[in-house]
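Field: sequence (string)
Field: structure_tokens (string)

Example rows 1 and 2, in order.
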Amino acid sequence: ARIVKGTEVLKPNCALIDSEILRDQDKDAVLKFTQDWLNRHIQTVLEPLYRLQDQDIAEGAPKEVAQKIYEGLGILPREELQNLIGQMSEEGRNTLRTKKIRFGPIIVYLPELNKPAGVAMQALLLSLWEGKTLPAEKPAEGIVSFSIEGKDINPDYYRAIGYPVFGPRSIRVDMLDRVICAVYDGADKGKFKAQHQMAEWLGCNIADLYAVLEAMGHRKIYDPADEEKRDDVPEKPTDKADAKSEEVIELKEKEPEEKKQAKKPELATFILKSGKAKPAQEESASKKFKDQKFVWFCN
């Protein structure tokens, strides 16, 4: 049999391949067997997603949030759920936490679906649903992020399989969420500094890190590298008194390469994207923010 598009993204069908081996009376039994196997296989691989259909989730906002995340294949922008999240009681929030839903500042998702098998299954199901050619397009197994420069990709497709697109990169959602929380946890008075570990988490260079942060809505206001470029242009000595300065410059240039590489330059400062203030009812990744103009929470 082969897998074909069904009535829902998560419910593809099996179609028997013509074969002389099967007699007419066997076809129905074989089709039922393969369809049952396919249904069980999908539910096993995407088990965290199917938990959102459990009956213990309370009616109202919690049930609606769970259903929307289910229909989004385990990931949605938080802004699409914010009104419902605000309506939930603490009991409703706790129920959804037991389903391992991660309510990040920008994205709500199921971290357990980030495994290669989950990504591959989501890619297959979406490709079937959208009529794309198989095998399904997906990132290399285990990759943290990849450049989308020069590539014609569908951001909605990559977000649905756990690799949202921000700026020049498609980024695995758990690493993206780590950077987002580090940004908000490290912010002070509406500003934050980019950190080298953020680029390491994203598996990208500093230029791409800045582009990703700007794609999130943050604005770069100061970059020490700009000043260093100006300082790196030595003035031409005008007399003998300047000769000593020229020698100092030459000595700096001869500084051991290992020592140069060990020094990590200070990175740029950004103004934090302002968010809608709300009561401090949820814990952030490591603390609560007191500046209500820039309140975002990770829970």
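Row 2 begins here:
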Amino acid sequence: MSNPSIGIYEKALPDLPDWPSRLAAAAEAGYDFVEIPVDETEEKLARLDWTTTERAALRSAVTDTGVDIGTVILSAHRKFPLGSASVETREKALDLFKKAVDLAVDLNASTIQLAGYFVYYEKHDEYSKDRFMNGLSHGLDWATPAGIMLGLETMDGEDITSVSTALEIVQKINSPILKLYPDVGNLIGNGFDVSKELKLGKGQLIGIHLKDARPGQYRRVPFGTGDVPFVDVFRTLSDIEYDGNFLIEMWNDSAPDSMETITNARAWIVDKMLAAGYFA
């Protein structure tokens, strides 16, 4: 198996003023790509309305540093969910979806990762899942001709919490561009057997989020202090011949040693890959 491509979440990078410096920091720490979040904050939502000049500037930074924008993470659907009971909210969710496809195309990102929530802040009802599925179908109408892959992430909560629940949706929609993007930390947080879950996704995985976690504790668990069996994870991925990307998900929380932290995190992950015999 060839050496895998390992990326870093933008929010793990040091607090830097612009994209050239962020991508340069990622390169210095040894990463191949950065995942760019579009979350529910006004600052991140504004990325969907970047000008042609702003998009070109980021592409230029990619060329200069050799660090790609691998994935657009559309977590803004937490606030504006596809499964909302509100017609207005669903229309906003679809508008964000279309703009995210356009942004991914302009940044040469191959994938949009979708959070596996039917709704988040509002109450579920018997139609939440159906509305979510309908919204996904509309998104496919834009992503398919654009050549952008869509990856469903396994989340906390009560909706897409496992590979098996994500796979049910992928198989029902049955599109070649809708695949799985599981988060091993979230799987542990939800109490699942990670290796068993990953095996279910054989042939359907386009990315893996790597973070440590404990049951019920999904974020900010330092690598090696949680319950994710990383060596077993990489052995399983080797067994099912997974050859996609990996993304280390962390948050810098404005820590002054964030460069050291992300550099060490990559080295720690590579060590676990080597222990599992994941590399050729």
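free_text_note (row 2): The first strand starts at residue 6 and ends at 9.
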